[in-house]
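Fresh eyes needed here. Kindly weigh in on this sequence plus structure tokens:
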Amino acid sequence: MMLVVRKEIVAQSLSRLRHQRTHTFFTGYLCLRQRASQLDRLDDLQPEFLLFFKQFFYVRDHPLGTPYIKPFTEQKASNKNLWLNENVAGSYAPSSLRPGQPFRRVVNIEGRKYSLPSDHAQRALKHLLYSVPVQVADLAAVLYRDFGLLGESVTIKDLVDIFAYEFGYTNEPGSEPNKEFRMLYSLETMNNWGEDWLEPHE
């Protein structure tokens, strides 16, 4: 039987993410981190920001002109900053990113080439997370909310393991995450996760 994360659980996780001060562009950093894992390199990452947003943050019943949910904000969370518009990828264009902005302190951009410095995790923690790690269970629940899960006893740790593997923090699903993961993510909500968090896929 295929399972999905219950809508109320997704809503709770999204609320917790948005009420923690996190720079909006941490989403773009996640895109680059996943791409670096796919290519097994930190330079010339050739990110497809729009495809990333369509995969993880598109919401079917969205307000007109704003199809993507905004999981992070450095401002006070409200309905006014809950959505992102269709041109979300334009925010990450080199011409839109001025030197000195938090994202540029984490990501190297030369011409149209994006790369991550070797200490990108430390930089992301300081400039995008404001030194407070993200609750990884909440992040995984939001990222994979529309993905079908197979199995009779899927746990939130299984979902976090998928995230850790797909974003390059482990070499194989279920193995011990690396120091970057331990630096950027907190297991607090995972350790207090309820059992009734999945429902059959309709």
